[in-house]
Amino acid sequence: MRTRVCITIDTEFSIGGAFSNAARTPVAEPLVWCEVGGQSQGLGFMLDTFARYGVQATFFVETLQRLYFKHDPMRAIARQIHEQGHEVQLHSHPCWTMFQREDWREEASKGRPKDNYHSRDVDESAALIHQGIDTFAGWGLPRPQVFRSGNMHHDDGLYQALAKAGIPYASNVAVAIFDCGDTKYRLYSGQHERHGVREFPVLTFADWAVCSKQHIKSLTIAGSSFAETRHLLEQARAAGIPLVVILTHPFEYVQNRDLAFSQTRTNNQTQRRLVQLCKFLHDNRDRFDGCGLATAANALPQAPASNNILLKGALWHTVPRMAAQVAYHKYGRWVLSRRHGPYIRPT
């Protein structure tokens, strides 16, 4: 059986600093399309790459932003993704509910608005999930089968809410990004059932270890070299892990200097990694299947007691990746400063 590889893309708009600065406003399409010189280096680049190599991806599309963006710009984005044959699944950031209040600026000034599903009332979480389901219906899209929470925040109550809302699958867990403190959710790989909902965590691995101390990392395009990713995919296949979930965002394919994404340049490092991964999946399609998460989940037999394997990275991959990340980030900042002048941090 082929090992299924699910590239998942959190597709969302940004508050853009509006809660902390009255001069700022939320950012919509620029955070998704990420145009450089009139060409989309974010979503457009990703869709072109997936089409070239025959990879189906899963786009977790955020819906609560509609509480601010009344003209509904995400509708056209979600429909285009769907029409190109990819899965559109549900993503949700509760911080957008602040815009239901007329006095949202005053209320936000009192403290950072909550953007979590962790420690949230079950019925309240279920209502927010139903908002997303209704949004999909309004957009003319199939009912979402998979849910991902904003910031990967989760707890036992969220899975109760998902079950109540009739969502069968989730991908909320990325232990290196957020650990809710409950050992039942310290999930590194595979599939796991919680309250009747099957969770498919973002693959988390140990990228280095010194004596008894080890560092864990969740598998992302922006944060992992292709050498690391390929090494982990081969390990996952050898270990019998049936499905690997990888995380990315459209805005990671550019480098930017401002919250409005008006000063950007192409991130060739991240783009190259995505191309290499998709080419690898295409060239090894006898062993790996680049497919959507719901497609994979529907094909897999239910396994409530799936093995929870923590894969190991290789130090000879980790060290070069860390050095390359730092060097490329500094180089990008230098190029942007040459283009747009010295950076002045907003107050």
Short summary:
By secondary structure, the chain is of the alpha/beta class.
SS content category: alpha/beta
Q: What's the architecture in CATH terms?
A: Alpha-Beta Barrel
As for the CATH topology, it is: TIM Barrel
CATH top level assignment? Alpha Beta
Main β-sheet description:
9 strands, mixed
Give the terminus-to-terminus CA distance: 55 Å
**CATH H level, superfamily name:** Glycoside hydrolase/deacetylase
Q: Unreliable runs, pLDDT <50, ≥5 residues?
A: none
List keywords for this structure.
single chain, 347 residues, alpha/beta, TIM Barrel
Could you give the topology of this structure?
Elements lengths: L2 E9 L18 H4 L1 E2 L2 E2 L2 H11 L4 E5 L11 H10 L3 E6 L11 H5 L13 H17 L7 E4 L6 H10 L3 E2 L21 E3 L2 E3 L4 E7 L2 E6 L7 H14 L3 E6 L5 E3 L7 E3 L1 H16 L4 E3 L2 H7 L11 E2 L2 H26 L7
Parallel strand pairs: 1-4, 1-12, 1-15, 4-5, 5-6, 6-7, 7-9, 10-16
Antiparallel strand pairs: 2-3, 8-9, 10-11, 13-14
Helix pairs in contact: 2-8, 5-6
Task: Please describe what this structure looks like.
Helix content is 35%, strand content 19%. By secondary structure, it is α/β, with parallel strands linked by helices. Strands 1, 4, 5, 6, 7, 8, 9, 12 and 15 form a nine-stranded mixed beta sheet that branches. The protein has a three-stranded mixed beta sheet with strand order 11-10-16. Helix 3 links the parallel strand 4 and strand 5 (87-92).
